[in-house]
Design brief:
Helix content: under 10%
Strand order of the largest sheet: 1-4-3-2-5-6
Shape: globular
Radius of gyration: 18 Å
Number of strands: 8
Length: about 140
């Protein structure tokens, strides 16, 4: 039920920052597991950075995380595109691959695993606790 109490526009007391929902692979062994609920292509706003595919994973607790994968990782993108909406998947930062050009960062090798379809996933249905399911992608 919406909050019926209105606050003055300039009243910021009691405000809490909303945490980012972007998952970042920072260290070898970092991993995320969840139900694939959507994916989208995102053009980079910075010409120096590559475009990316964003995979939305819903974790067991209900939180949805965005996982960005660069178009420069065609093997990883292809494996993720083979996964279906409603499938429980995991993505693991498996190892680093040394940069081939001096001054560039090492590449992050990501491994994609599947745990099969999520029996709890309901496509296009609304659940009072979590809201509407996202439409499938093609």
């Amino acid at each position: 039920m919406p909050n019926t109490q209105t606050l003055p526009v300039d009243d910021w007391s009691g405000a809490e920052e909303v945490a980012s929902n972007w998952f970042k692979f920072e260290n070898v062994g970092d991993k995320i597991k969840g139900t694939l609920v959507n994916k989208r292509f995102q053009k980079s706003a910075n010409p120096a950075m590559p475009d990316q595919w964003v995979y939305e994973l819903k974790k067991a607790g209900g939180a949805v995380f965005n996982v960005g994968v660069s178009v420069g990782k065609p093997g990883t993108v292809q494996r993720l595109n083979n996964c279906k909406v409603g499938e429980v998947i995991g993505i693991v930062f498996e190892k680093t691959i040394p940069a081939t050009m001096k001054g560039f960062a090492d590449a992050k090798a990501l491994k994609v695993v599947t745990f099969g379809m999520d029996p709890e996933y309901k496509e296009f249905e609304t659940d009072e606790a979590t809201g509407p399911a996202l439409p499938p992608f093609n």
